[in-house]
């Protein structure tokens, strides 16, 4: 097993080299050369990345085989070859352009994949960066994980977390730059599991004001009409056109999968001080829900599929 992992590590590094080559190619001044060879290099790069992520997946202890049940046969999988075999495994519905964005759409390459247990540390770090507010600087300095514990800690460990609809976004350097978490039974989570988690946080952080870990509940009609809760976190330092392009791809995947499961809509909770992330949700088709009976800093958004 150790020898297998050593060889896999070498392969992962070689894949990163190919991705860096493609990134440099996209930036060259000779656009005629780029147009001639881009599709070939991009196809090679996509195939290598798929192989790399597959190796990560089979090495992970928390595998969920159902995530690879894509449903209808994909048109581009009929082309055959290794790329077709791997693309046919992905849970992306009928969105054929997911792995190969148009040449004029993005200058960088992003890869949407299922989350694994190896991502948790990076997810905590990204969540803290995105959700940081100056008024809690003293808490972050003292307890580096307190904000992520509060926002996503229980989502990651809850049995209600729909792991088949939780995705990570990697950039061309194989670094996590975004992720989405999905809870199908949000009412059950808020009224039962959330309460126990807050009690655990009080024990973990006994010297922190208990009001920091507030209990959040939505109006009953939200649970009835938009029962699924999704929480999106994405590095807002990414270029605006790229972040929206990736976000739309992500929502297409979620909408397709959740619709097939019989859900007609979803909702999200967001700190109103996070203006950029709020704007991102609105761009993805969410609308603000007014008069939510909870603390002043929270915004409730909802979206129909």
Folded structure, characterized:
- The protein is an alpha+beta fold.
- The protein has two domains: 1-100; 109-305, Gcn5-related N-acetyltransferase (GNAT) (Aminopeptidase, 3-Layer(aba) Sandwich), CATH 3.40.630.
- 48% of the residues lie in helices and 13% in strands.
- The protein has ten helices and seven strands.
- It has a seven-stranded mixed β-sheet, with helices on both faces.
- A hairpin with an 8-residue loop joins β6 and β7.
- The longest helix has 28 residues, at 31-58.
- The radius of gyration is 20 Å and the shape is globular.
- The N and C termini lie far apart (44 Å).
- Residues 65-79 and 92-105 have low confidence and may be disordered.
Based on the model shown, name its key terms:
single chain, 305 residues, alpha+beta, Aminopeptidase, 2 domains, 13% strand
Mean pLDDT: 80
User: How many domains, in number, for the residues?
Assistant: 2
**Structural class of the helices, strands and pairings?**
alpha+beta
Q: What do we call the CATH topology of the largest domain?
A: Aminopeptidase
Distance between the termini: 44 Å
The CATH class label of the largest domain is Alpha Beta
- Tally of DSSP helical segments: 10
The order of strands across the largest sheet is 1-2-3-4-5-7-6
Q: Give the low-pLDDT segments.
A: 65-79, 92-105
- Proportion in β-strands: 5-15%
Order of SSEs: HHHEHHHEEHHEHEHEE
Radius of gyration: 20 Å
* CATH architecture label name of the largest domain: 3-Layer(aba) Sandwich
Name of the CATH superfamily of the largest domain: Gcn5-related N-acetyltransferase (GNAT)
Number of strands: 7
